[in-house]
Specification:
Order of helices and strands: EHHEHEEHHE
CATH class: Alpha Beta
Radius of gyration: 14 Å
Number of domains: 1
Number of strands: 5
Oligomer: single chain
Strand content: 5-15%
Length: about 160
């Protein structure tokens, strides 16, 4: 998860709701990782509240810049480079939704991705299902409410 704007006031709320989803109960541990530094080797565990204060090195970054950073520095193990949560200005304004970025269904083409808004509680569960091949783009479409925000009924 990346912060593109100063979102420190809502980080605890995000992780409480996202990691608290009933759809993640079987996982039994937090699954979201807050990227607080460009030195990703120093990130050793998933993020749980309370989240310590930090200055995001990604303030003002674009979706394309985040995707490039993820491709260059994440993946290959602990942190996904294909399924990402962004806390952006709209997140700060509504305190309840975030931006999800996910690769489109196979075959994956570099740079071919989809962005959708999600409520906090559905965000990590949605990306976890996509990451492990349990769901694809149709899952996003089926989970989207009238307002265009992904909301899982079991979150």
């Amino acid at each position: 998860m990346f912060c593109l704007t100063s979102a420190s006031k809502i980080l605890n709320t995000f992780f409480e709701q996202a990691n608290g989803s009933r759809l993640l109960e079987e996982v039994g541990r937090p699954v979201g990782v807050l990227i607080t530094t460009r030195d990703v080797a120093s990130i050793t565990k998933a993020t749980s509240p309370p989240v310590p204060a930090f200055q995001s090195p990604f303030l003002g970054a674009s979706v394309d810049e985040i995707r490039q950073f993820a491709r260059d520095h994440l993946g290959g193990g602990r942190i996904s480079d294909a399924n990402i949560v962004l806390l952006d200005q709209k997140t700060v304004e509504d305190s309840s939704t975030c931006l999800l970025i996910t690769s489109k269904d196979w075959p994956q083409v570099p740079g071919d991705f989809r962005t959708v808004r999600s409520d906090f509680a559905s965000s990590l569960a949605t990306l976890n299902n996509i990451e492990f091949g349990c769901a694809g783009e149709e899952y996003l479409d089926d989970s989207m409410a009238q307002d265009g925000v992904v909301r899982l009924t079991d979150s």
